[in-house]
Design brief:
The complex is a heterodimer of chains A (443) and B (451). Chain A has 443 residues and is an all-alpha fold. Chain A has helices at 8-25, 29-55, 68-84, 100-114, 119-128, 131-139, 145-162, 171-183, 190-198, 201-208, 212-219, 221-224, 229-249, 254-273, 278-309, 325-338, 345-360, 362-387, 402-417, 422-440. The longest helix of chain A is centred in the middle third of the chain and has 32 residues, at 278-309. The chains are: A mainly alpha (443), B mainly alpha (451).
Chain lengths: 443, 451
């Protein structure tokens, strides 16, 4: 067998499954930690190799194309990065044990979802995905009413679509319902801040950050443009963009701030996805990738701070810069990466998105630009609240660990360095999306 | 390519990329937490700014020698994707060369001053990281040949300025003032983004050369002059925020929280004049509409009058200088509104140089006056000051000036507070909705407090 056509993608799933099995057999917490991280690392490595090989035409049983290969590579890097820098305190000495099995399950899900373009399989994957945070909430003894209130209609819609129970005309609206709930578009957003506050932060990050509904919408773009579904969704998205951007300014807890920050950006991407122009879809999808990196960085910083100081309020200034300057720098840079500061990967994507939204509706375009300004204000405000304002003495306990440093450097590199030449990146994304849209067109 | 073109390209890249390379190097060292020695930082900064300045001066010399008027430099190929194109081009003419030379000369002086002034400060390296971003931003903005390039420089200047105001970040007031500045700058960025879109829509591309070379009369013939006037209004708004024109003047005294070298270079010399420079650069668009031109004149004069009054009642030297600077900036903007080209440029150059000197002298000025008084004997230097204004009116005027015209509180009361109130109310509804859905009266919030 030629080594280059080894089924790396399938191997990554097997590695995660093996890791899950080993975790159930192990009692030592330190070993559980090591198994989790190593399994995640090797799985991510296999994904990366398989993505690279797919460009040369070497495929395993699961097929990757020009759209899914970079997506898989990025998703696997981000998933591993989140796990890699998980503080030891989350494993050892925590009140509730770290959800290692759920985390590896999330990774398997991400691999399967990003490496697939089959609509039915995607439906099935979307259907089972919310079970992971639900199990996490149950495990932590938290109420699941809010989560179920949102996800029962989501499941019902998905089942109806999957089994073709509804007439063709209604399919668009069921898709809207699914997207509203999964992406947290107003008014289906309440579960996000609840999950962020009550669930495990790592599981929550792995659940929300891949933004699967955006990929799903791209792959099933034809369905969205039936019965004016895209038009209605774009109205809801623009309301959500301004509403959540405003809410980020008045949050008094860090996790709520993060939840609304994610929701605002997610709505902005959905607004782009609602278009039927390839250019705008390219912008929205590129923005999604850039935001995934930026939001992962901010999420890691928040988790690192909370691991040292507990839950953080934004009522007061904390002045963490002196003790953990790298966290401050990473927060600022990843934040700038999210709001499309020049030189970051989101810059060109946001320019294209706003440029293309304005002809569709000048008001929508202005709202996008205004919301982006609000979000950047909120980000700097939170940066000052967390890292500035008072002087605290340095302590070795609060020092950033090497693993965290490496993870944050990788993310900062992805925010700035990896997209230093946006031309090639966006052009290749554009070609991939064009190809995918052509596939969807009826012969 | 001719020898002249090769030389022009070489000097242009020297001028532009030297500060950008410096910024990249410092940012990288900062991220990787590499502590650089003070002397090395100062040397690298001085060398980089000197190389950049040499490049620009050499380019100017070539212009003079070869009797050139303009030169376009495109370091990266234009990014085209369907209808979207992103042009990153630089345009060298006498205006951009003059402003860039001024900016780099002052930055060079400040680099030397800061080496001693910031010596021993815990944030020495951080200061120079922000300084290098600022220098890159100002060079890009002043030499920009397209609205996209201008936007990049504009944002870099905005970010570095805000973070420099909050430089002493262990105190709460600098961070609040830095945030205040950031808010105003983001409004400015949003306005510039809107202008960028309209310019693209009207001209098909964002090249300044079309505006500069066609001039006002050429643009009148454009079918889309109404859109261009809209773009002009947005450009004026962006410039107003950047140059602290009325009613956005509130951030200027707040910006003095930063270290003196940054106050001198940003708010006394360069940042504050950047808005005026933008208006001067795109003056043909402003002159397209007489109404818009008169608005520019009126707002400039109003700013000059307003800040002239306020400057008289300030109690600290940096605030006095800040408002005195604003008075002159208002005059410069009015000159631009009248359609002058050389006069505002000369005014900018002279004024920026004077203010840099005054700001740098500010910390030692009391010592200077004391020594002056000692030399002259017991002399009251202000004994000849008399007033011709009636005492009641004088008191009202003094109160008005002391409150800085109440502009900050008015903007806060009528714009910021109602805006935030809406979202605070929405947040309360959100929390109640969560409680209803959860079926509980109490929920543990993320800051650990049970409500």
């Amino acid at each position: 067998m030629n080594p280059v056509i080894l089924p790396f993608l399938e191997a990554s799933i097997v590695i995660c499954l093996l890791g899950m099995f080993l975790i159930t057999q192990t009692k030592s917490i330190e070993k559980v930690r090591q198994i989790t991280i190593y399994s995640s690392f090797f799985a991510a490595l296999c994904c990366l190799i398989s993505s690279i090989l797919s460009f040369s035409g070497f495929q395993g049983y699961l097929q990757l194309d020009s759209f899914s290969a970079p997506l898989l590579a990025l998703s696997s890097i981000l998933t591993f990065t989140i796990l890699f820098c998980t503080p030891c305190t989350k494993f050892i000495g925590a009140l509730t044990p770290f959800p290692s099995i759920l985390v590896l399950l999330s990774q398997i899900w991400v691999i399967l979802f990003t490496s697939n373009t089959n609509s039915y399989l995607l439906f099935a994957l979307l259907l089972i995905e919310p079970l992971i945070p639900l199990l996490d909430l149950k495990r932590r003894g938290e109420k699941t009413r809010i989560f179920l209130f949102h996800f029962v209609p989501y499941w019902l819609s998905a089942i109806a679509l999957f089994t073709n129970l509804v007439p063709y005309e209604a399919k668009g609206f069921l898709i809207i319902l699914m997207v509203i709930i999964r992406s947290g578009i107003f008014p289906g957003h309440a579960w996000v801040s609840y999950l962020m506050n009550q669930g495990s932060f790592t599981v929550s990050l792995l659940f929300i950050l891949p933004m699967p509904s955006i990929i799903f919408l791209l792959i099933n773009h034809n369905l969205l443009h039936e019965n004016h579904a895209a038009e209605y969704l774009s109205w809801l998205a623009i309301i959500s963009v301004i509403y959540f951007s405003g809410l980020t300014l008045v949050q008094k807890s860090l996790r709520d701030f993060y939840a609304y920050l994610f929701l605002a950006f997610s709505a902005m991407i959905i607004l782009g996805i609602c278009s039927d122009e390839t250019l705008e879809l390219t912008a929205a999808y590129s923005l999604r990738n850039a935001l995934c990196v930026g939001l992962t960085g901010i999420g890691i910083v928040i988790r690192s701070l909370e691991a040292r100081h507990g839950r953080l309020s934004l009522f007061i200034n904390h002045g963490f810069y002196e003790s953990t300057p790298l966290l401050g720098i990473a927060f600022l840079f990843c934040g700038l990466g999210c709001v499309g500061f020049p030189g970051t990967s989101a810059f060109i994507s946001f320019e294209i998105l706003a440029d293309e939204v304005i002809p569709f509706s000048p008001y929508f375009g202005m709202i996008c630009v205004f919301s982006e300004a609000l979000l950047s204000i909120a980000l700097l405000m939170v940066y000052f609240k967390l890292f500035c304002g008072i002087k605290i003495t340095k302590s070795e306990i609060f020092k950033v660990r090497q693993k965290e440093s490496i993870a944050l450097w990788v993310l900062i590199f992805l925010v700035f360095g990896a997209r230093f030449l946006p031309h090639t990146n966006i052009t290749s994304t554009h070609l991939a999306i064009e190809k995918m849209l052509k596939k969807q067109q009826p012969n | 390519m001719s020898r002249l073109e090769t030389s022009l390209d070489f000097f242009a890249s020297m001028g532009i990329f030297s500060p950008i390379a410096l910024a990249c190097f410092f940012v990288l060292a900062f991220i990787l937490h590499i502590k650089l020695p003070e002397k090395f930082i100062a040397l690298v900064v001085q060398l980089s700014v000197f190389i950049s300045l040499s490049g620009i001066v050499s380019l100017g010399t070539l212009f003079l020698y070869n009797k050139l008027n303009k030169f376009e430099y495109e370091p990266f190929p234009t990014f085209h994707l369907e209808s979207f194109h992103f042009d990153f081009q630089f345009y060298f003419d006498w205006l951009s060369l003059s402003f860039a030379t001024l900016a780099l000369s002052l930055c060079f002086v400040i680099a030397f001053f800061s080496q001693r002034y910031m010596h021993g400060e815990p944030g020495y390296q951080r200061f120079f990281v922000l300084y290098s971003i600022f220098v890159s931003g100002i060079v890009i903005a002043s030499l920009a040949g397209t609205i996209e390039a201008l936007f990049v420089g504009w944002e870099m200047v905005g970010l570095s300025s805000s973070l420099l105001v909050a430089f002493f970040h262990e105190r709460i007031m600098p961070t609040r003032n830095g945030l205040h500045l950031w808010v105003i700058y983001r409004i400015s960025d949003a306005a510039l983004f809107g202008a960028s879109y309209l310019l693209h829509h009207a001209l098909g591309e964002g090249f300044f050369k079309i505006i500069i070379e066609q001039g006002k009369d050429g643009l009148v013939n454009e079918a889309s002059s109404a859109i261009l006037i809209g773009a002009g209004a947005l450009i004026f708004m962006a410039a107003s925020c950047k140059s602290a024109l009325f009613p956005f003047s509130g951030w200027l005294p707040r910006a003095m929280e930063g270290p003196t070298p940054s106050s001198a270079i940003f708010y006394g010399a360069l940042s504050i004049h950047l808005g005026a420079f933008l208006l001067l650069r795109l003056n043909p668009i402003i002159q397209l509409s007489p109404t818009l031109a008169w608005v520019v004149v009126f707002m400039g004069l109003l700013t000059a009058l307003f800040s002239g009054i306020i400057a008289n009642a300030q109690t600290d030297i940096k605030s006095i200088l800040a408002y005195a600077t604003l008075t002159q900036v208002g005059m410069i903007v009015a000159e631009i509104g009248f359609g002058f080209e050389i006069l505002p440029l000369m005014h900018i150059i002279g004024h920026a140089s004077l203010r840099t000197y005054q700001f740098l002298r500010a910390p030692s000025s009391f010592q200077y006056y004391k020594s002056l008084e000692d030399s002259l004997g017991k002399t009251d230097l202000n004994k000849n000051s008399t007033t011709i204004i009636p005492s009641y009116f004088s008191l009202v005027l003094y109160s008005f000036a002391l409150n800085r015209g109440g502009m900050d509180s008015m903007l806060e009361r009528f714009i910021a507070r109602p805006f935030l109130m809406v979202f605070k109310f929405a947040d309360i509804i959100e929390k109640k909705w969560l409680l209803i859905l959860n079926g509980t009266q109490k929920v543990t919030s993320s800051d650990g407090v049970t409500k």
